[in-house]
Structure formats: structure tokens, C-alpha cells
Amino acid sequence: MVNHPLFPLLLVWFFGAYILKSSAITDPSDVHALIQVKLAVDPSTIREGSCMATWNFSVDPCDNLFGMYFSCGIACSRDRNGAQRVTRLKLDGSGYSGTLSPAVGNLSSLQQLQIEGNTFSGSVPSSIGQLHQLVILDLSENLFTGRLPSSIFEGLRTLQILNINGNLLSGTLPITVSSIVNLVKCRLQNNQFTGYLPDLSSLKQLRLLDLSGNRFYGSLPLKFPPSLFSASFRNNLLRGGFTKQHVRALNPALVVLDVSTNRLSGPVDASLFQHPSLQQLILANNSFTMLINELSGEDMHMEKSQMVAIDMSNNRIGGLLPRMFAVMPNLSSLSLSNNAFYGQINVSYAIKALSERAGMQPLQRMMLNGNYLTGPLPSLFMKLSPENTMASLVDNCLPSCPSRLFFCQGADQKPISLCRLYNVNV
Ligand SMILES: *[C@@H]1O[C@H](CO)[C@@H](O)[C@H](O)[C@H]1NC(C)=O
Ligand SMILES: *[C@@H]1O[C@H](CO)[C@@H](O)[C@H](O)[C@H]1NC(C)=O
Ligand SMILES: *[C@@H]1O[C@H](CO)[C@@H](O)[C@H](O)[C@H]1NC(C)=O
Ligand SMILES: *[C@@H]1O[C@H](CO)[C@@H](O)[C@H](O)[C@H]1NC(C)=O
Ligand SMILES: *[C@@H]1O[C@H](CO)[C@@H](O)[C@H](O)[C@H]1NC(C)=O
Asked: Which pLDDT value is given to residue 132?
């Protein structure tokens, strides 16, 4: 019977008839849609004890929540006409595989659709765009493939959380994504999306945007959503520099910005470090070459800087070590590893690392390895201790960096021939 080709139809017919016979409590179109959703899941992946295993449509879903049947997976509430409507479809991550039935778009009172952490595959049904009351859509960590149809975002005006990260979705993002005007969190990371970064500046509520681990190309955005707090463009194919124009585009509420592991190149405009609210800035693993428009420490007004962590490692940034990092009051982690900084290390770095001054956080992580820095080391460096500071000066141009100094790690400095390319006095 179960293997009979008409089995799904018979099942729908049988349970449909049953529900008509009993006085249905749940809206019949919701029941029909739930039956379709279950039928689209490979029955062998509906494990005993999982939510869906308890979905027995010979009883009314909303009338039997938390009992032997429908013990989890859905929530209901009564609508204006007194009918019970399914408002939440939230599956456990117990390994369901199969497709997401387009009938899910008929659960028209749905506010939460969450099926994350399973192995659903196939395309994301465009009927999701009919869910005009949806607040949370979480399809993350599944195996969905294909493009997102543009209609999918058109009706989602109430959506606040969109998590479709960790799938195999590809193609460009539909521009209708900018019509989800109430969106607060948008996680699209770790897919295969491509194209230019979308203009999301119309999303006035957006606080979190993660586009990392895709194939977006073009330059950094010239428009940002006004409320954006955290933005990650990490691990894409972005090119171009971090110009004054790009710095000006950053919204003043931004706290976390990660553009690491792209193909960004050329100069970074130092006004970036004067951003009024940025705390974490990650520029690592690009091909940036220098900082420009850097003013002297005093003139940069670093006393207002909120920066806590800066990572510019693995670039090609040359020049003297910038003084501004040593006077950022809250900076506690700085990585300038594997660049082309040269010249002497200013004593202000040691002063910052040793700071006990109120309002001046000590630099707890100071990674300067893999540059062309020369000696002599300011004597204050001898006061650094491995208990308080994580530091490395390995692979520079110091005349000696004895292994008894923890930040030398007993490792080699660069050969003199290489050092002379950057430093006249070696
Ligand atoms: C579904 O519920 C009916 C009525 O309680 C019961 O007879 C039937 O065995 C149940 N089916 C499954 C698969 O548990
Ligand atoms: C959605 O409901 C309508 C009306 O009941 C029905 O005609 C349609 O087939 C349903 N869609 C799906 C995908 O089941
Ligand atoms: C940069 O790339 C290296 C090597 O691939 C990796 O180990 C490191 O975590 C990356 N750094 C950042 C900040 O992404
Ligand atoms: C630095 O950190 C402290 C404590 O976390 C915080 O109160 C302060 O606003 C931050 N910013 C500056 C500029 O001191
Ligand atoms: C360290 O920086 C200060 C302030 O910019 C400067 O006056 C001083 O000469 C620098 N010291 C060295 C050794 O470069």
C-alpha cells in the first residue's frame, strides 16, 4: 500500500474526508497544506521521536497540540473568524530530507517558517512570497539549490529575519530583496550567490547583514542601510580600494565591518579609522597597499574612537607603523601581520600595551610579525609579559630578537638583503 503510486493521493483523500466528517477546528486549507508538506519529505527520514513523526492527520492538528500527536512542529492561533490557523511551522533539525512543498505558501497565517539544519533540497518555493504575515523565515543549513525567484520577496513586508545561509543557492539576488522593508537580520552567507552587492539602503531597520562566503563581485557598497550594526562581506570576489567615498558611505551606526578575504587592493583611506562607532574592523587577506590621508595622532581625534579590534593582516600595506593605533582608547587587539611596514617601532606601542591609565585599554594582542620593522626596540618592550600581552615580532628586520623575549618566539628575522629593500639604515 505504502509503495502504491497513488498512495499520496489516497492519503490526502482519506484524511481530507476524515476532517470534513469530524467538525474541523483547523482551517481545512492549512490541514491540506500541512499534509502536502509532510508528503514532500522522504518518509525514511522522519525518525521516530521527531516532530513530523507525530503528525497524524486522523486527528485535527491545532486541536491536538502537545499531545500524543502534533507534539511539536506547529503552533496555531484563532483568527478573526474563529478558525484555528497555523501560525508557526518550526521543525526540529532531525535530518528530514526531501523538498519543501509549494503548498507551504497556502499557510497564509504563518508568521514563522523555520526548517533549519535538515537536508531539504530542490528549489525554494516562490509561493513563500504569499506569506504576507511571515516574520521569521529560516531555511538555513539545508541543501536548497537554484536561484531565488524574484516573487519570493515581494510579499514579505512583515519579514524581520531572513536566514538562508548554508545552502547551495546561486545566481544573482533578486532586487526585490530591497522590498522587505521591515527586515532586521539578513543572513545569506555560505551560498553561491553572485553579481554586484545588492543596494539594501532602503531597508531602514536592517541591523545585521552577512553576505560572506559567496561570489559577489564589484566594489564595496556606496550605500548602506541606515541602522546597520554588523556587516560581513568576507570571502567574496570584491575588488577596488577603500576610498574616502567608501568610508563616507558607511552608516554612522556601524559597529562591525568584515571585508576580509576578497580581492580589494590599493590604498585604504585613513578616515576609516575615525568612524564614530566602529569597534571591529577586519580588512585581512586582501591586497591593500597603503594607508593614505593619515594625519598625525593628535589631529585624528582618536580619543573618540570606539575601535576595539583591528585586523589588517595579510595585505601589502607599507609605511611606518601608524601612530593612531597607539592612541585609540579602547583598542585591545591589533593585527598588522604579514604586510610591508618598516622603520622603527614607536615607543607609543609599548606604552599602549602597558597602559594602566583609566580610559586607555592596554593593547592585549599586538601582532606585528611578518613586516620589515627595524630596531632598536624601545626599552619599554622589555616590560611586556606574556601573561598580559600576546605579541609577535617574528619575521621582521630587527638586528636581534633573542628567544628569551617571548614576542620573538625564538624564530628568525628576515635576511638583511630583503630588509635593505625597505629600510635604508639596516
Ligand atoms: C493515527 O491516529 C489514529 C487515531 O488515533 C490511529 O488509529 C493510527 O494508528 C495513528 N497512526 C499512526 C501512524 O500513528
Ligand atoms: C493552495 O490552495 C489552493 C486553494 O485551495 C489550491 O488550489 C492550490 O492547489 C494550493 N496550492 C498548492 C501548491 O497546494
Ligand atoms: C586569512 O587567510 C588565512 C589563510 O587562508 C586564514 O588562516 C586566516 O584565518 C584569514 N584571516 C582572516 C581574518 O580571515
Ligand atoms: C570604551 O569602552 C568603555 C567600556 O567598555 C565604554 O564605556 C566607552 O564608551 C568606550 N569608548 C570610548 C571612546 O571610551
Ligand atoms: C614616536 O612618535 C612620536 C609622536 O609621533 C614622535 O615624536 C617620536 O619621534 C617617535 N619616536 C620614534 C623613535 O620614532
From this structure: 96
Sign of the four-CA dihedral 244, 248, 252, 258 = negative
| 49-58, 233-242, 268-277, 394-403: least confidently modelled range | 394-403
C-alpha to C-alpha distance for 192 and 212, rounded to whole angstroms: 10
Cβ neighbours of residue 400 under 8 Å, at least 6 residues apart? 375, 413
Q: Which numbered atom of ligand 5 lies nearest the CA of 297?
A: 5
Q: Is the pLDDT of residue 269 over 90?
A: yes
The distance in angstroms from the start CA to the end CA of the chain is 85
Our mutation pick for probing the ligand 4 site, out of 301, 306, 331, counting the most ligand atoms within 8 A of Cβ, is: 306
- What mean pLDDT is predicted for residues 21-26? 62
The CA 119 to ligand 3 mean position distance, Å, reads 29
E runs forming strands in 97-183: 97-99, 112-114, 119-122, 136-138, 143-146, 161-163, 168-172
Contact 180, 156 (CB under 8 A): yes
Question: To test ligand 2's pocket by mutation, which of 30, 32, 106, 123 has the most ligand atoms within 8 angstroms of CB?
Answer: 106
Whose alpha carbon is nearest atom 12 of ligand 4?
306
pLDDT for position 298:
58
> Which ligand has the shortest distance to the CA of 285?
3
Q: What is the dihedral of CA 327, 333, 336, 337, to 10 degrees?
A: 150
Q: What is the tens place of the pLDDT at every residue in 174-222?
A: 999 999 999 999 999 999 999 999 999 999 999 999 999 999 999 999 9
Query: What SS3 class is residue 297?
Result: coil
Determine the atom of ligand 5 nearest the C-alpha atom of 323.
5
Taking the CA of residue 314 as reference, the ligand 3 atom at the shortest distance is 1
- Give me 324's grid cell: 593612531
| Contacting residues for 410 by C-beta, under 8 A, at least 6 apart | 403
Distance CA 233, CA 413 (A): 34
CA of 141 to the centre of ligand 3 (A): 23
- pTM above threshold 0.70: yes
The 10 Å Cβ neighbour count of residue 195 is 14
Output the CA 86–ligand 2 centroid distance in Å: 16
Separation of 424 CA from ligand 5 center, angstroms? 18
